[in-house]
Design a protein that fits this description.
- Chain A: Keywords: Amino-acid transport, ATP-binding, Nucleotide-binding, Transport.
- Chain A: Residues 251-273 are annotated as: Disordered.
- Chain A: InterPro entries: AAA+_ATPase, ABC_transporter-like_ATP-bd, BCAA_Transport_ATP-bd_LivF, P-loop_NTPase.
- The complex is a heteropentamer of chains A (273), B (424), C (473), D (232) and E (366).
- With 273 residues, chain A is α/β, with parallel strands linked by helices.
- Chain A has helices spanning 41-49, 77-83, 100-109, 127-140, 155-167, 185-199, 211-217, 235-239, 242-250, and strands at 3-12, 15-25, 30-34, 56-61, 70-71, 85-87, 173-177, 203-207, 220-225, 228-233.
- Chain A has a domain at 3-92 and 170-247: 3-Layer(aba) Sandwich (Rossmann fold), CATH 3.40.50.300.
- Chain A is built from nine helices and ten strands.
- In chain A, strands 6-7-8-3-9-10 form a six-stranded mixed sheet, with helices on both faces. Chain A has a four-stranded antiparallel sheet with strand order 2-1-4-5, covered by helices on one side.
- In chain A, helix 3 (100-109) packs across helix 4 and helix 5 runs parallel beside helix 6 (185-199).
- The longest helix of chain A is centred in the C-terminal third of the chain and has 15 residues, at 185-199.
- The radius of gyration of chain A is 20 Å and the shape is globular.
- Chain B has 424 residues and is α/β, with parallel strands linked by helices.
- Chain B contains 14 helices and 17 strands.
- In chain B, helix 6 (179-194) links the parallel strand 7 and strand 8.
- Chain C is mainly α and 473 residues long.
- Chain C has a domain at 103-389 and 426-442: ABC transporter involved in vitamin B12 uptake, BtuC, CATH 1.10.3470.
- Chain C is built from 21 helices and eight strands.
- In chain C, helix 11 packs antiparallel against helix 12 (315-341) and helix 20 (446-455) packs across helix 21 (459-472).
- Chain D has a single domain, classed as P-loop containing nucleotide triphosphate hydrolases (Rossmann fold), CATH 3.40.50.
- In chain D, the strands form two sheets. Chain D has a six-stranded mixed sheet, with helices on both faces. A four-stranded antiparallel sheet of chain D has the order 2-1-4-5, covered by helices on one side.
- In chain D, 36% of the residues lie in helices and 26% in strands.
- By secondary structure, chain D is α/β, with parallel strands linked by helices.
- The longest helix of chain D is centred in the last third of the chain and has 17 residues, at 166-182.
- Chains in contact: A-C, A-D, B-C, B-E, C-E, D-E.
- Chain A binds chain D through residues 36-38, 153-155, 158, 178, 181-185, 209-212, 214-215, 239, 245, 249-253, 256, 258-259, 266-273, and chain D through 13-18, 20, 37-39, 159, 161-167, 169-170, 173, 190-194, 197, 207-208, 220-222, 230-232.
- The complex binds adenosine-5'-triphosphate (2 copies), leucine (LEU) and magnesium ion (2 copies).
- One adenosine-5'-triphosphate binds next to strand 2 and helix 1 of chain A.
């Protein structure tokens, strides 16, 4: 087991964005997280990485670098990152004016111990940082754009760069938040290829609205609705689950008990009930 | 590339004077009247016409029987750092033979401690008035001369007069932060306490301070019946009107220059109406003040021709600082003539202990003291009076200094050598 | 020009594209692509030889612009002396006086030296504000620490420090004190960002300023600050006389007939070179930091602090230390200023308008470009000099050139002379303000930033190529 | 004449090409549903109509007039109302002020307000309450009310049922029916049955283009063409 | 017990010199004991006086700061030219007052003319502010906030220098403050209020009550404008979500211009009060001094919050009058005390409540 959460909960004032989630993930697994807008998916990632502090619950993480699981419930972002938990963002969130290579290189550098404090040496003298960054760029297919300022990339390329930056920390677990959002149909394939490639040697959690992608590449799918984990399992199982169909297509409160779709997920949901 | 090593030696018959005064900013008026006085002093000595411009720039004054004087005027903006840096400019870039100036005591002090120590040219201070510039060993210097009157002289005249008249028993002192204000405070404290008068702890405020009401209230509470203010004209227009509101306290100290008189004048007019009298001012407990010099207090040919020359050239009568800087100029001329040299060092040597012949307070009325290069001269005490018709044209204020009620001779107002830490 | 859409943090970083990538040596298109393409068909031995050759070649090429700028600064005094000494020519109609002209329009000694203090201070300001994205509105406090530090030390007012301690040592000590002060301020301030960070640093600095204004211990009159009463400050190797020169316009070392060339070097110019040398060293030190792994983290923080945290940086400590470095160099600038002018007043050192000056020259020069502020400072000092009311300024020059009749012509009750006196003499701040507004509106990347945009890379990188182009024509 | 026409509209967020040539037409009095998965560009279509995110290519014609490139306020003043995603009521304004602000300086506010309050009795009850204190459903009502009072010829309604309890959804649906009696409407709705129930016609978006359209008559989510784009 | 703080520190200090070094805190706490100090402070006349004066000062701080807050709240622009607007207001007000009030004018006339001057200044300066907004600030809304700070700072610099030039040319200088304008204040406002003085022994300058009244009036007017007018509605809504307001058919750009104009007008109105204020008076130095105070108030209150500005102005005003009292009575002889206190308040507020008293995160973004 790589990651586990216990009763993970996050309140924003009156809203409970994530509610009592118990979730585990194994090494090497690719698990997608789906759910309607506002279901708490991004918030869940934020809790895992330490960008937000949970209101209640516990998170444990067992990176390959440690023998025992570490309690990362209250660990700040940079600590979870150093432990091997890395993420990409739903909204492109890179270093805009520096080069593509530098975007990745700076992330590589973060994991080279005290190197970052060597203010008396030239950054370019650290050949291994550069080499590593270059190999990541090759892997995500951005080698040709290495010298380009990141803000000059196309949207799709920025999405891949997002992944590249996350990859640079040599993660044990890679969290990808809607990596295909806004990517044109021709490019979605490229991004999925990269994800599959990465998933071969990393554990990955993927938030995605593109069901083709989700169903195609996931080992497991977890469904969040109104902050709760309502279903998880193989893609096929989840696809056929009534609750999921309802939650995901309906997009409104199915826990309110008012939804009476007994036989058919495509029935007259909610409105005239 | 200029050679800083060579301070003097401007050549045979040109004597180059670097003048530093504020010619911009709030206190430009101080600089202007000081320059007018200085030009007049030299012009008077040589029967020449004074330079008329009081702006920065280079000016020449030809003389018949003396050297040609070249003045390089630089703006200090009343700021010590600027004063120091322009003083250095004058020495290095302009190669002047002598420095004159500084209206701010802090500037004069800074030139003394940061510039004079590195050069051998003489410096005539004026009108910066803090006594310590010549009295304290920290600032006095063998190249530093001052003809202008200083705060200790103020206190020894005005303070003593008020004390002797027995009008006050407890005095509050409010003064500006900085050398000048501290000089006023310590000198008045010393003199008044010497006369057996209680002096409250002096209070120092920032330049331009205006909430004097509370300070006066507190002073009244502590029994003060007299108040002395040690301010430049950045603060006087705030201080004096407040002082006038407090009839229970007599305001005394040093007489001010024209602009402050304008402010007081209009304040009095506003409360008492246009036709106020001498007595009204006395009733408002405003005065008496000691004056270092005012044009209408001396009756002698030199003063008369000084006034004429001044009104002619500048359209106004000489003001508070004019005599001091006049004598500064006059003394330089006299020293050049006596030494027959235009070398700074020779001029300085001649000035030491010199009695200045031509002075607005009368012939030979200023003598440089051997021990500190401060010129000793007499002081007067007077009440402000409504400006008389005679001067209405050339003294543009509703009040002016009245006839002296007392004149203190030089030896009564100077700090005795024994009490001065400066001995050159 | 700018990009804030991707910045999920809502942070107030300035992200003009010219800045960082051009400052970092590896991201310009040429250098990088070369590196990435395979070696091609040349033999390994050839390649090695090529590389050694091109390494030197490249190095020289990279530093061509540095060398040019340094050379210009080095020869400036000689140039200035020559030009202002050109005698007036009496033509029949008028006198032409190029000397006076140059005197009026070339920055004089003090101003060029002031350029160094201000330039170094502004660079240190840019170091934190331009590279890390945190506007340090209280930066004057560090400048003040440097200035007061060396004077108090020289006046024997620092317990445990002998007044004889060499200037170079006290300067560095003052820098370290500033470093520590920055850490203390950072401790409370770095919880905030944007405007709030600017305001809290301003608040702290103003408190320090008011306290210093009333600090009787420091100076007889704390308002005008302490004067330097110790031995004349010397720049060089401490305790080695032959390798040190005293600075100061009057007290500094001057050399006559140098190398028997009949060349006299005044104390002012000796100070100029000595101070310039320290500034140069500081510049290279800061540049080194910015190009180091540490500096890259600073830039990452400016670009996107949230992401920097997410890739594993404990950004708080990077910000703290960057702030400390910046304070250190600000203090060096202050120490040089005080050491040269023998004096420091609170208004010239601790006051927030001193920070404002740094801000202005940083913008004019180009924020986020290390050398930019120096050029901005040059421009600033040039304006100050030309518009100063003093000798060698435009106002005296105009008065002299125009002559009395023109000056006293009256229009609407105001003479031209009056206008010159009030609208030209000492009015540098006005024109500076106008220039500044124009820069913000029209040249947001500043002098150097825009130049780089034009050239498409740092001047150091691009200059040789541009020259090459012209040579080929 | 159509109330609204979009012709080959291309809209970008920065470099991201979101609408890749959208064509659609809305006739007076219709309710048109805009369907599609998350992120296909439904909201962006509405933003493009209002010129909040002006299209880079193509034209938007409202009441026969080309409004592309106009200021948003101008488009709104020509009679386009908007009930945005996530409601976006002004939390620190009272309910009444939220309504007031939509009327504009010339509108006959009092009568419009009373009309609205009879339509939404809940809102009248909370008229002096700050909007942030309202429940999500009430806020949604308020947003719809705000869109309606402007006396608009076209109302753009973005996911009105999102995050609402079914009971509330019903009220909202009623409100929309009321509104549709007076204005033409474009409705973006994830709740497919609801959309089919309300709308006369639909457009189906995928990857920034219209892939299907037609009458809602008899269309169910089972429909292969719908299923392909909406479900997995 | 009479001691000084530094004496106290000397007792603690390991290094004996420390006491001398920290001599700037040489505040002779000349208390006949803490009790005595409290007794003095707690006298009703002292307390009431401090509070009344504090309110007067607060009123003026408020008038100047509120414009800053409005502009920031709606537009997200931190306006560094605000102090210069207040300074111009003081001068324009001074011109009107000096031009219309003669030595013989009675109290009523003077007060009336003051109101006229206030009206004129508000109108003129609001128009000026609107022009500045459209011509200079508008082109850079989409740049990072730093640039708006820099731009407005530059504008302030230019305005200050222009004022310097004009005042010098027109002979208003060499006086540091323009006393002719300050002198148009009616005598009653300069003295203390008789009734208070006679009945309660409270000696508070009538001007402060006048200013407090003015401040309350302005605050009420701004409050009514914000809450009762459609435009106010636009502004309040716009500071939450300007895009939504735009989509409701409101020309937000024009609203920006109007708000900037009003903010400028309010600053200038504060400037008119400064003309009669015993602590200030028309002077070019107002630019910087007033700017710093206004920032402190706005930041303490929470950027963009009207309520916060009111509260913070009161806090700062009372702190100012309290520390001024401490100084006047000689309990503390450190002249920088009020200033230091106010900046310490700023720092303390930001440390404890980083968003200020009533600040909301992310206000004013648009
Ligand atoms: N910082 C925050 N403060 C307050 N509420 C928040 C915050 N972040 C998220 N929320 C709320 O928490 C809920 C879950 O949001 P979250 O971003 O996790 O949704 P999501 O599942 O990622 O949705 P989407 O698919 O639209 O990205 C939403 O109601 C959102 O408004
Ligand atoms: N401000 C923005 N900046 C950049 N990209 C954006 C922005 N807003 C939306 N997008 C992207 O544009 C695409 C279309 O978004 P849009 O909001 O129009 O989708 P939608 O069809 O309304 O989806 P939903 O059902 O989730 O509301 C998405 O990929 C989204 O990530
Ligand atoms: C009376 C003035 C000449 C005093 C002067 N302002 C000084 O500081 O010394
Ligand atoms: Mg999300
Ligand atoms: Mg949407």
């Amino acid at each position: 087991m790589l990651l586990s959460t216990h009763n993970l909960t996050k309140d924003f004032g009156a809203i409970t964005a994530v509610e009592g989630v118990d979730f585990t993930l194994d090494h090497g697994e690719l698990c997608s997280v789906i759910g309607p807008n506002g279901a708490g998916k991004t918030t869940f990632f934020n809790l895992l990485t330490g960008a937000l502090e949970p209101t209640a619950g516990r998170i444990e993480f067992a990176p390959t670098s440690r023998s025992d699981p570490v309690d990362i419930t209250d660990a700040p972002t940079h600590e979870t990152a150093l432990l091997g938990l890395h993420r990409s963002y739903q909204i492109t969130n890179v270093f805009p004016t520096v080069s593509v290579l530098e975007n990745v290189r700076i992330a590589v550098q973060a994991h080279r111990g005290r190197d970052s404090w060597q203010f008396w040496r030239n950054a370019n003298a650290f050949d291994d940082h550069v080499a590593e960054a270059e190999s990541i760029l090759s892997r995500i297919g951005l080698a040709a754009d290495a010298a380009e300022p990141a803000e000059n990339l196309s949207h799709g390329e920025k999405r891949t760069l997002e992944i590249g930056v996350a990859l640079a920390g040599d993660p044990d677990l890679l969290l990808l938040d809607e990596p295909t959002a806004g990517v044109s149909s021709e490019d979605v394939g490229t991004v999925t290829d990269i994800i599959e490639d990465v998933a071969a040697d990393h554990a990955v959690m993927l938030i995605e609205h593109n069901m083709d992608v989700v169903m195609d590449i996931s080992d497991r799918v977890a469904v969040l609705n109104q902050g709760e984990l309502i279903e998880q399992g193989e893609p096929e199982t989840v696809r056929n689950s009534d609750a999921v169909q309802r939650a995901y297509l309906g997009g409104y409160d199915s826990s309110g008990g008012a939804v009476e779709s007994d036989d058919d997920a495509n029935g007259d949901v909610g409105v005239s009930a | 590339i200029a050679d800083p090593g060579d301070g003097g030696g401007g050549g045979g018959d040109t004597f180059k004077i670097g003048a530093l005064q504020p010619t911009s900013g709030d206190l430009a008026y101080y600089g202007e009247i000081s320059l007018m006085g200085f030009y007049s002093g030299l012009a008077h000595r040589y029967g020449a016409d004074p330079v008329e411009s009081v702006e920065t720039g280079t000016y020449e004054m030809e003389t018949d029987d003396g050297p040609t004087f070249e003045f390089v005027v630089q703006d200090t903006g009343f700021d010590p750092s600027t004063a120091q840096s322009v003083a250095e400019d004058l020495i290095i870039d302009e190669d002047v033979d002598l420095l004159f100036g500084a209206s701010s005591s802090d500037s004069a002090r800074q030139i003394s401690t940061s510039v004079l120590t590195e050069t051998d040219i003489p410096y005539v201070v004026g009108p910066a008035a803090d006594a310590d510039i010549t009295v304290s060993n920290d600032y006095c210097h063998e190249q530093l001369f001052r003809a202008s009157e200083h705060t200790a002289m103020d206190a020894r005249a005005g303070g003593r007069y008020v004390a002797e008249q027995g009008d006050v028993s407890t005095v509050a002192i409010f003064a500006a932060e900085g050398a000048f204000g501290e000089g006023v405070a310590s000198n008045y404290t010393e003199v008044l306490e010497g006369e057996g008068i209680d002096v409250l702890e002096p209070r120092f405020v920032e330049s331009g301070y205006s909430e004097f009401g509370g300070l006066f209230d507190e002073a009244v509470e502590q029994g003060a019946d007299g108040v002395v203010g040690g301010f430049t004209f950045a603060t006087l227009p705030e201080f004096l009107p407040t002082a006038m509101e407090y009839d229970e306290m007599q305001a005394f100290g040093g007489f001010a220059e024209l602009v402050t008189n304008q402010v007081i004048g209009s304040t009095i007019e506003a409360t008492l109406g246009e036709g106020f009298t001498e007595q009204d001012i006395k009733d408002a407990q405003l005065g008496p003040f000691t004056t270092r010099y005012h044009w209408n207090q001396y009756d002698n040919p030199i003063n008369d021709s000084f006034i004429d020359m001044h009104v002619d050239a500048y359209g106004i009568v000489p003001d508070l600082f004019s005599a001091g800087t006049f004598v500064g100029g006059s003394a330089v001329g006299q020293a050049i003539d006596e030494s027959g040299s235009t070398q700074g060092a020779d001029v300085a040597a001649a000035m030491r202990g010199m009695t200045v012949e031509e002075t607005p307070k009368g012939e030979g009325a200023y003598t440089f003291q051997e021990h500190n290069n401060q010129a000793a001269s007499s002081m007067t005490v007077a009440w402000p009076v409504p400006t008389t018709d005679e001067w209405a044209d050339s003294w543009d204020a509703a009040v002016m200094p009245g006839e002296p009620v007392e004149t203190y001779a030089a030896d009564e107002v100077m700090v005795p050598a024994s009490e001065s830490s400066c001995s050159l | 020009m700018t990009d804030s859409t991707n910045d999920g943090t809502g942070r107030t970083a300035t992200t003009d594209r010219s800045t960082t990538d051009s400052e970092s040596t590896r991201t310009t298109p040429t250098g990088e692509v070369e590196r990435l393409t395979p070696e091609g068909d040349s033999s390994p031995a050839d390649a090695a030889a090529d590389e050694a050759d091109s390494w030197l070649h490249l190095y020289a090429r990279d530093h061509l612009s540095h060398a040019a700028v340094v050379a210009l600064f080095v020869v400036y005094p000689l140039l200035y002396a020559q030009l202002t000494a050109i005698p007036a020519i009496d033509l029949v109609v008028a006198t032409v006086d190029p000397g006076a002209f140059f005197d009026a329009f070339l920055p004089a000694t003090t101003f060029v030296i002031a350029l160094f203090f201000l330039g170094l201070f502004a660079m240190s300001f840019d170091f934190i504000s331009g590279y890390t994205g945190y506007l340090s509105f209280g930066h004057a406090a560090f400048y003040g620490v440097g200035a007061y530090g060396i004077i108090l030390a020289a006046n024997g007012k620092v317990p445990g420090l002998s007044p004889e301690t060499p200037f170079m040592v006290t300067m560095i000590l003052a820098g370290l004190v500033a470093f520590a002060l920055a850490l203390a301020i950072g401790l409370v301030s770095f919880r905030l960002s944007g405007v709030y960070f600017a305001m809290i640093t301003l608040g702290v600095a103003q408190v320090i300023y008011v306290l210093v204004r009333n600090w009787d211990y420091a100076a007889g009159n704390p308002l005008s600050g302490p004067s330097h009463n110790g031995p004349t400050p010397e720049i060089g190797i401490p305790y080695v006389d032959s390798l040190s020169v005293a600075i100061g316009r009057l007290a500094g070392d001057s050399f006559e007939n140098v190398f028997g060339l009949g060349l006299d070097l005044s104390a002012t110019w000796v100070s100029y070179w000595a101070i310039g040398l320290v500034v140069l060293v500081c510049y290279f030190a800061m540049q080194r930091i910015i190009h180091s792994p540490f500096g890259r983290v600073m830039i990452a923080i400016r670009e996107n602090e949230e992401r920097a945290r997410a890739v594993g940086y404990n950004v708080f400590w990077y910000k703290m230390v960057a702030f400390g470095f910046s304070a250190f160099f600000a203090a060096i600038a202050g120490a040089l200023f005080a050491g040269f002018s023998n004096n420091a007043s609170p208004d010239d050192t601790f006051y927030f308008l001193v920070t404002a000056d740094a801000l202005i020259v940083t913008i004019i020069g180009g924020i986020g470009t290390l050398a930019g502020p120096l050029f901005g400072a040059g421009f600033f000092q040039w304006l100050e000099d030309v518009l100063s009311a003093e000798q060698g300024g435009l106002a005296p020059y105009l008065r002299e050139t125009l002559g009395e009749p023109i000056l006293s012509t009256e229009v609407l009750g105001v003479t031209l002379g009056d206008v010159i006196n009030s609208a030209v003499a000492g009015r540098a701040p006005l024109y500076l303000g106008i220039v500044f507004v124009a820069f913000v509106l029209l040249v947001p990347n500043g002098l150097l930033g825009s130049l780089r945009d034009r050239l498409g890379g740092t001047v150091a990188k691009r200059l040789p190529a541009v020259l090459e182009r012209y040579r080929r024509r | 004449m159509s109330v609204l026409e979009l012709e080959d509209v291309h809209t970008y967020y920065g470099e991201s090409h979101v609408l890749q040539g959208v064509d659609l037409q809305v006739e007076a009095g219709e309710i048109v549903a805009l369907l599609g998965r998350n992120g296909v560009g439904k909201t962006t279509t509405l933003r493009s109509i209002l010129q909040l995110t002006p299209p880079r290519e193509g034209t938007v014609r409202f009441a026969g007039e080309d409004v592309t490139g106009l200021a948003t306020s101008d488009v709104a003043n020509r009679g386009v109302g908007w009930v945005p995603e996530e409601r976006r009521v002004f939390g620190y304004l009272t309910v009444e002020e939220n309504v007031r602000i939509a009327v504009g300086p010339d509108g006959e506010y009092e009568s419009l307000r009373d009309e609205i309050f009879t339509l939404f009795p809940d809102l009248e009850r909370f008229r002096d309450e700050e909007a942030r204190n309202l429940s999500g459903g009430q806020q949604q009502m308020l947003a719809i009310a705000r869109g309606m009072v402007g006396d608009n010829d076209l109302l753009l309604v973005d996911e009105p049922s999102e995050g609402l309890a079914p009971m509330i959804v019903e009220q909202v649906v009623d409100a929309l029916r009321e509104a549709s009696a007076e204005t033409t409407m474009i409705l973006v709705e994830q709740n497919f049955p609801l959309a089919m129930d309300l709308a006369d016609r639909f457009y189906l978006l995928d990857q920034g283009t219209v892939v299907e359209s037609g009458s809602t008559e008899g269309v169910t989510a089972d429909d292969e063409r719908i299923r392909r784009y909406l479900a997995a | 017990m009479i001691g000084t703080l530094s004496g106290f520190l000397a007792g603690l200090a390991v290094v004996p010199e420390l006491a001398a070094i920290v001599s700037f805190v040489d505040v002779p706490l000349a208390l006949g004991g803490v009790g005595d100090f409290l007794a003095r402070l707690l006298q009703p006349d002292t307390l009431v006086r401090i509070l009344l004066e504090g309110m007067g000062k607060a009123a003026i701080y408020f008038m100047i700061a509120v414009g800053l807050t409005l502009v920031f709240g709606l537009m997200g622009v931190l306006n560094f030219a605000h102090g210069a607007f207040a300074m111009l207001g003081a001068y324009v007000g001074g011109i009107v007052l000096v031009g219309t009030i003669s030595a013989g004018s009675g109290v009523g006339t003077r007060l009336l003319l003051f109101v006229v001057a206030a009206g004129v200044v508000f109108a003129v300066m609001a128009a000026f502010g609107a022009a500045v907004e459209t011509k200079l600030v508008r082109p850079i809304y989409d740049r990072p906030p730093t640039y708006q700070i820099l731009l407005t700072f530059g504008i302030g610099l230019v305005l200050e220098e222009l004022s310097r030039i004009v005042t010098t040319l027109r002979g208003i200088q060499p006086e540091p403050t323009w006393s002719a304008a300050a002198g148009t204040i009616p005598a009653v406002l300069e003295g203390s209020i008789d009734i208070l003085q006679e009945t309660l022994g409270i000696n508070v300058r009538a001007f402060y009550l006048f200013a407090a009244a003015g401040g309350i009036l302005v605050a009420t007017a701004v409050w009514l404008f914000l809450t009762r007018t459609l435009y106010g509605l636009y502004i309040r809504a716009g500071s939450e979500d300007s895009e939504m307001v735009e989509a409701l058919g409101v020309d937000v750009r024009r609203a920006f211009t109007v708000v900037f104009g009003i903010g400028t007008g309010l600053a200038a109105l504060g400037g008119v009060f400064l003309t009669w204020d015993p602590t200030w008076g028309p002077s070019v130095l107002l630019n910087i001094d007033v700017l710093l105070f206004a920032f402190v108030v706005v930041v303490i209150g929470g950027l963009g919050s009207f309520k916060g500005t009111v509260a913070a102005a009161l806090v700062v005003g009372v702190a100012d009058s309290f520390t001024t009292w401490l100084f006047h009575t000689g309990i503390v002889t450190f002249p920088g005390l009020p200033e230091v206190t106010i900046f310490l308040l700023l720092v303390a507020t930001l440390v404890v409540k980083p968003q200020g008293l009533y600040g909301v995160e992310e206000v004013g973004g648009h």
